């Protein structure tokens, strides 16, 4: 079976082919390129037999993808967050209000561990979700990511203007406005990750997973965490029983 898996996020649309259960390398497009129709249908998609997808990218991207799926003429299923799945139980009273990408990331870890864990997804936004060893989702947090933190200063603070510098992953006090902003945003993110580690220890949660486009940039600030950038795509495997026509 040849399956196309797609994770359409705010910054990137990531996709890969899974052939006979084995995933191939992840490909990605800028979400803005898809939104503006600057992407061509890949030849790799011609042999696909199923599609499993998740999207938080908005109507224009969803429309482009759904049009592509119609051309493929294969079974398609779109992921949604549920009240429970495979023993994982959602804390939301209305699960459909949860981003399906968060649910898939938790599902991927739960199916591997069957134990208490925390998932931190670091992208345009940062989400933190906690699950106990019985599979109960304990709730979570949603915060701005690194770029949104910087943009909020640029957009809301008239006196703060700067050009991006090459400061790497530095957390040292800045000696220019640019360094102060960029290092300050990293400092805030590092403090968040350290607090999450402390909170997990207090809750007896031993497993922390990092995912998302910016996860490699922050991994050193959360040394206890397992880095796995493909958690959302991995969670799409849980949709195998749900193929029910185009979503």
UniProtKB/TrEMBL annotation:
The active site is at 101 (proton acceptor). This is Type III pantothenate kinase. GO terms for biological process: coenzyme A biosynthetic process. NCBIfam families: baf. One of its GO terms (cellular component) is cytoplasm. The keyword Transferase applies. The gene is coaX. It catalyses: (R)-pantothenate + ATP = (R)-4'-phosphopantothenate + ADP + H(+).
């Amino acid at each position: 079976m040849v399956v196309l898996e797609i994770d359409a996020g705010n910054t990137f649309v990531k996709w890969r082919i899974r052939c006979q259960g084995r995933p191939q390398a992840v490909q990605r497009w800028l979400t803005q390129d898809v939104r503006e129709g600057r992407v061509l249908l890949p030849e790799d998609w011609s042999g696909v037999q199923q599609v499993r997808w998740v999207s938080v990218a908005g109507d224009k991207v969803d429309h482009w993808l759904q049009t592509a799926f119609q051309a493929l003429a294969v079974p398609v299923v779109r992921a949604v967050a549920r009240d429970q799945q495979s023993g994982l139980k959602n804390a939301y009273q209305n699960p459909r209000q949860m981003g399906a990408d968060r649910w898939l990331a938790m599902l991927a870890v739960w199916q591997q561990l069957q134990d208490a864990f925390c998932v931190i997804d670091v992208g345009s936004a940062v989400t933190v979700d906690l699950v106990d060893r019985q599979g109960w989702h304990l709730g979570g947090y949603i915060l701005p990511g690194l770029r949104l933190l910087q943009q909020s200063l640029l957009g809301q603070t008239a006196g703060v203007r700067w050009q991006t510098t090459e400061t790497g992953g530095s957390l040292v006090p800045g000696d220019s406005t640019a360094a102060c902003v960029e290092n300050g945003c990293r400092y805030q993110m590092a403090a968040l990750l350290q607090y999450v580690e402390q909170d997990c220890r207090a809750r007896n949660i031993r497993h922390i997973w990092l995912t998302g486009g910016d996860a490699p940039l922050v991994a050193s600030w959360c040394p206890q965490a397992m880095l796995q950038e493909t958690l959302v795509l991995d969670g799409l495997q849980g949709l195998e029983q749900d193929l029910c026509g185009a979503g």
